[in-house]
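$ run holo --ligand "zinc ion" --emit tokens
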Amino acid sequence: MRECLYCGGPIPDDRHKNAWTCTKEHALLLKKEREANNYIKVRTTADPIIMQREHFNDLAEEFGFEVPIDLNYVSPFKIDWSLKTGTFIKEGCVGVALGDIGYIFFKPQILKIYKL
Ligand SMILES: [Zn+2]
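-- output --
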């Protein structure tokens, strides 16, 4: 009997042949864990500001520039709020610049991303 890589429990026979986990839920959790580990690896080997800029750029491509993004849809562990290359002013607020991309955090949990 093979063992689930996530919980160590037995993998049921009705799971597909290549399954490494006992359930789809554990497959998902395992994937998340690996992504988080990969992220930590990338973060320590790459310039964190470049990574951060990429992350905000990806978010802007998904949600759009200058539109309110609910922070609930953003992975907070990917964001280091202390990183910045400068500041800018939009809509009467001071924003955080990351190279050619910037963001402003509007309370309580709205984020807007700008092309600078
Ligand atoms: Zn499991």
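-- notes --
Residues 4, 6-7, 9, 21-23, 26 surround zinc ion (CB under 6 Å).
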